[in-house]
Structures are given as C-alpha cells and as structure tokens.
Design goal:
The chain folds into two domains: 4-46, no CATH class; 66-244, Rossmann fold (3-Layer(aba) Sandwich). 49% of the residues lie in helices and 12% in strands. It is built from ten helices and seven strands. α4 (85-95) crosses α10 (224-244) and α6 runs antiparallel to α7 (149-160). The protein is elongated and about 70 Å long.
Length: 245
C-alpha cells in the first residue's frame, strides 16, 4: 500500500480515495491514502505529466534517470570482424551527443591475456547488458551498442561448440534499431582478429539468425562516412515521425 498521493492536479483527492478503497479491500483492513496537493498553479515546476509524455526528451530535466531510461532507444551494431562496429558506435554517439557501450568481450579478452573459457561467454553477455542498462541512465534519446549478446552466442558456438541456456535467453535481448555492417571494405588485421573468410562466415550467420528470429535490421554499406550518414538518416527520420505522432 501507499501512504499518500502527491500531485498538482484536482484529481488527486479522488485518486487518493480510490486507492484507499482498493487497498482496504485487498488487505481486509481500513487504509487511508492521504492526498497532498503541491504547487497547483505550477509556479515551482512549470510542467505537467501530459507535457512530459508529449515530449519526454525535451522535458528530460524533469525526469529521473531511472524513468527516462525507458524512453531511450538502444541501437545495436552487428557484423563480422573489421566491419566498423566500434568506430560507428563511437562516432554515432558523438553525432547524437549521447552515450555508447563498448564491447566488453574485447576488454575481458585483453585482461585475460587473449584467453577466454566457456564460462566467460555468459559473463561477457551479462556484463554487456549491465553496462547497457547503466549507460541508459546517462544517454540522450539513443544508446549506441557496439555489440549484443547475440554476438556472444555466435562466439560460444564457434569457440566451444556449446551455449549456456542463460546465454540463450540473453541473446533474445531486443534493440529498437539493429544495423548489420556489411563486409564490403578491406579487412584490417589488428592482431586479435581471424581473417576475411571468418568475417564472411560471421556475416552469413548474422543474416540467417536475424531472419530466423524475425528481427528487423538495416544493412550498412560502403565507407565509415557512408555508413554514418545512413545511420543519421534512419534515426533522424524516426525523430521526425515521433514528433508527428
């Protein structure tokens, strides 16, 4: 049960009465929810719930991070090795003045001297999700994600021939936008990657898996600049559509 209803609205008293009756019936004892009306003329906080809902991004200053995070669209980059995912997530975050989440698997690989074990796969996916959720608290409209648990699922299959059921569940994590980076520019070996043949194997796997899971995705072609322009076009169009609804 709750103790009080705080609002600047005339309906506060009726809402408090409704809750009092509902909680009293549920708990089989009398419960009184107090109505507290604050700043009905909105002199201290010149905003209403209706206004916030109509433009949560423009009124973000009135929302806590825990509430605003639900309005943040997660944008995921998938693709084979050396297809620009890390660079795109960083550049897109700069362009849209928001946050990005780097690939935790790479950080763990570096920390462990280039050695990963099967239990690490679940850890990678779990930490990746935790970092995304934490970054949503600071993001602005979009959060750009260098990877997803679906990528970790691929590596678990490829490296160990098995997948933890908990990782299978995490691989179902949804993103508002998924961009698939095409392997259509030169493969760059940074000392940690396999080769172009493996990159193309990854790409084919993503195509199959995304279609099998019925996940909508947008394919990115060409140079990094071309891809960034396409990302900007897709997301800016979405902003205009959202503003019209």
């Amino acid at each position: 049960a709750v103790d009080a209803v705080f609002s600047s609205e005339e309906y506060g008293a009726g809402f408090a009465l409704y809750l009092s009756e509902a909680f009293s019936e549920y708990y089989h004892r009398e419960i009184k929810v107090v109505n507290v009306c604050e700043d009905p003329e909105r002199l201290l906080l010149p905003i209403s719930g209706t206004e916030i809902r109509s433009d949560p991004h423009g009124n973000r200053q009135y929302l806590s991070g825990e509430v605003y995070r639900d309005f943040v669209d997660k944008v995921c980059f998938l693709g084979g090795e050396s297809t620009g995912k890390s660079q795109l997530s960083r550049l897109a975050a700069q362009l849209f003045e928001t946050e990005f989440v780097a690939e935790y698997g790479r950080a763990l690989w570096d920390a462990q001297g280039g050695v990963l074990h099967e239990p690490d796969m679940l850890k990678i996916a779990q930490v990746q999700v935790q970092q995304e959720e934490q970054a949503c608290l600071m993001a602005n409209r979009y959060l750009f994600c260098d990877t997803s648990p679906l990528t970790t699922l691929f590596y678990s299959h490829e490296m160990f021939g098995e997948v933890d059921p908990a990782l299978e569940d995490l691989a179902k994590r949804t993103y508002e936008y998924v961009f698939l980076c095409e392997p259509d520019f030169d493969f760059v070996q940074d000392g940690t990657r396999r080769d172009d043949a493996f990159r193309r194997l990854q790409h084919a796997w993503y195509l199959r898996e995304l279609k099998l899971r019925e996940i909508p995705f947008i394919r990115l072609y060409g140079t990094i600049d071309n891809r960034l322009r396409d990302i900007e076009s897709v997301l800016c169009d979405a902003v205009f559509v959202d503003a019209d609804t």
